[in-house]
Amino acid sequence: ADAALQERAQAELDDLDRVEVLQANRRVVMTRDERIAVLAGSWYDEQASEYAAYGDEFFDALLALDDENFPLARDGFAAVLASAEAPVYLILEHAKACTLLGERDAAVAGYQRFLAALPEGEGGDRRLGAHLQIGMLHGMADDHWGALDAFQGAIEDFPDDYRPYFAFGQQMRIGGNAAEALEVLELALDRAGSSPEWSLLEEIGLTLA
Q: Which residue, among 10, 21, 22, 18, has the nearest Cα to 132 in the 3D structure?
């Protein structure tokens, strides 16, 4: 698998609210409730409402994920899922744990289930991140067309966001389609604003090389 694709997959996971929380938790010793409060600062309202309906087993799994105890987190989320009514963001948490354990098939299935459970038009960056994670996981397994299909779904849901075009163009370059990749990356650049991410510029350079 392409190293840049692996790095981007990890970056997308980091965007799903872990890095700042981990850094904050490591600076000071926090109580359980304080740690949960820090994590909650990154949740959407509907996400917080859903999580509030779950018991200690869910929050134990959430803290295990924050502690990078991924097997405990995965198993904890799975146990809560087994009896949860109409879960949405719980599915996403379980998929993240599977991703971090390298359980590709379970992670892809989880992200797909999360996308299917989201009400239309909701989910914001969580929705985008799920699309991108599916694509990255397919890409790392050398499933070129599966990756492109996932990134196309992200573009359809987020036509004005540069990130799905970036991912789609990168995957096209990896697949050996430099000319088409450059066209897509130019669309990403058009949507990236006046200060585009360095990694996007770097990807354009790699495509032109």
A: 10
How far apart are alpha carbons 207 and 192 in whole angstroms? 18
Judged against a pLDDT cut of 60, whether residue 163 lies above it is answered with yes
Taking the C-alpha atoms of residue 195 and residue 19, their distance in angstroms, rounded to an integer, is 23
Instruction: Give the 3-state secondary structure percentages of the chain, helix then strand then coil, rounded to 5.
Output: 75, 0, 25
**134 vs 129: CA distance, rounded Å:** 9
Indicate the pTM of the whole model: 0.84
Coil vs helix vs strand at 148: helix
- Cβ-contact 106, 125 below 8 angstroms: no
Q: Compute the Cα dihedral for 83, 89, 91, 97 and give only its sign.
A: negative
Q: Determine the pLDDT at residue 207.
A: 94
| Residue 44 DSSP SS3 | coil
